[in-house]
Design a protein that fits this description.
The protein is α/β, with parallel strands linked by helices. The chain has a single domain, classed as 3-Layer(aba) Sandwich (Aminopeptidase). It is built from 4 helices and 9 strands, in the order E-E-E-H-H-E-E-E-H-E-H-E-E. Strands 1, 2, 3, 4, 5, 6, 7, 8 and 9 form a 9-stranded mixed β-sheet that branches. Strand 5 and strand 6 form a beta hairpin. Keywords: Acyltransferase, Transferase. Its EC number is 2.3.1.178. One of its GO terms (biological process) is ectoine biosynthetic process.
């Protein structure tokens, strides 16, 4: 995974977020939060190998007739949408738009986007641990505020892990105060009949800015 400080993490791990756009870069290796009415979500993989560029477009407000969310690998065109969703989350440490484009190109196998019709409404980014390639580190999860309450965060996690058939463990870091992310990963562990344990990883002193400690959550024994 790139180590540039441009590749920061989420201010609250995974997010479904409010309106408070945050453009403050770098922090710990991950933050994926999905605060809101329902912090976990779901859908069906929809492969799309096309690539390209696209302007950022904002999804319209959800309606009663919105189709079910689907999940697929990102393309370069999704990088701009991922950046916009992270910025709108109000919860994540927002990476540069360039970083999301790189993630969508070079790490697309371990990242996913959620779609409602032709709108990108959520994403998860992650990577295989270089020294433990069967462990997936989940970096950020975010869902557009207009599409909260549809279990899209949980859907993204489930679809990504289902596709990575050799992955035996999932790691992420979540601050002690980030209840929504803890619920999201706790429910994920329950759905997969897996064990979840917490251990120290990044202390507050490891960060150059005002930042909470980031303990490590490890989810192992995933049921397939």
């Amino acid at each position: 995974m790139p180590t540039s400080t441009e590749l920061s993490n989420a201010r609250h791990h995974h997010s479904d977020a409010s309106d408070r756009a945050s453009h403050n870069p770098p922090n710990a290796l991950a933050r994926n939060a999905e605060p809101g009415a329902c912090p976990d979500e779901s859908g069906i993989p929809d492969e799309d190998d096309s690539a390209g560029t696209a302007a950022v477009t904002r999804p319209s407000a959800r309606t009663a007739v919105d189709p079910a969310p689907t999940v697929r690998r990102p393309t370069i065109a999704d990088g701009a949408h991922m950046w916009r969703i992270a910025s709108d989350s109000g919860e994540l440490d927002v990476n540069t738009a360039y970083a999301y484009a790189l993630l969508a190109r070079d790490f697309r196998d371990t990242c996913r986007v959620a779609m409602v019709a032709d709108q990108t409404v959520g994403f998860v980014t992650g990577y295989r641990r270089p020294d433990a390639p069967t462990t997936l580190f989940v970096w950020q999860i975010a869902v557009d505020p207009a599409f909260r309450g549809r279990h899209i965060g949980g859907l993204l996690l489930d679809a990504l892990v289902r596709d990575l058939v050799d992955v035996v463990a999932v790691e992420t870091t979540v601050t002690q105060t980030n209840d929504s992310s803890r619920r999201l990963f706790g429910k994920f562990a329950d759905r997969h009949d897996a064990r979840i344990c917490e251990s120290p990883l990044f202390a507050a002193a490891d960060f150059p800015d005002a930042h909470e400690a980031e303990p490590l959550l490890t989810i192992s024994g995933l049921a397939r």
